[in-house]
Design a protein that fits this description.
Length: about 375
Amino acid sequence: MARVTLEGIRKIYEERGREHVVVHGIDLTVQDGEFLVLVGPSGCGKSTTLRMIAGLESITSGTLRIGDRIVNEVAARDRDIAMVFQNYALYPHMTVYQNLAFALTLRKLPAADTTRRVNETAELLGLSPLLERRPRQLSGGQRQRVALGRAIVRQPQVFLFDEPLSNLDAKLRVQMRREIAALRRRLGTTTIYVTHDQVEAMTLGDRIVVMQEGKVQQVDSPLQLYRTPANTFVATFVGTPPMNLIPGAIAPDGVTHISAEGDLSLPVPESARPRGLVPGRAVILGIRPEALRFGAAGASSVTALVEEVEPLGSETLVSLNAGGVALTARVEGGVFPRRGERVALEVAPDALHWFDGSSQTRLT
């Protein structure tokens, strides 16, 4: 196992004589034995960052260390890492045993050691009955286990995963996610995992790195990302459905938040506002869908029109229009309003998130 350190890592491509910055100076330390997840939308630079760590992409500038060794110019095969790809990358003409043993054979490991490692890995992953099969005879989940096994059998310092579950159906993805989490606890190897799926990120990672347009937006534990997003991008990216964002300003009376999008006034007591927030300052108010509650009409509530109702069993998503502002509420699945009904909405003051109207960063 090893610590992975990125210091000012940048990646720049030349396109028609112009520079295109894909990754902007990432500073990050992955601790020994940590499971770190890189998450973000397509094109945010997360896979490029992983490929630079793997040695599959050159580093334009910055320093990359695995353990105490600088590996910027070290070939991928000499970095003592193992990577699991999205498309499995299995040899179709080889059996499961041969696929698992291939990297060890290249290293000229003694045959007895190779057999022992392959058998141990196959037992760990439930592949022992499948060792004589070829990839075409396996299900998607079994192929993914073989791909995992090819990484595990090498006993590397670092595991790298590049969206390994993207090709699986929803049910199998949940199963494989649990298996990866269990394997991680057993092996304790430093792991960097790339995904665009926030559920994978939240359930697997010790820490999560949220990226957008090649820049790190926030690095934190899953729960802290959800509870205290650093900016509006993180607030809407982490959480399903995303956080409701209402641009506006504190009213001159200093008591009410006024939406700039429509005719909406939300009662906000002074005790619930960030320190130093003066009347008239542009802000963005964030409210998680589960923080909205249906209640009785009164001074602490606002009226909203129910536009859509999506029953999901244990919970229901309700799309609302409050004074021209679109909101989503998540409520328990038993009792919910009907489409076209007018309802009173309440929100607890301590459930509000405040962001600066210009920089969109969190106000504390």
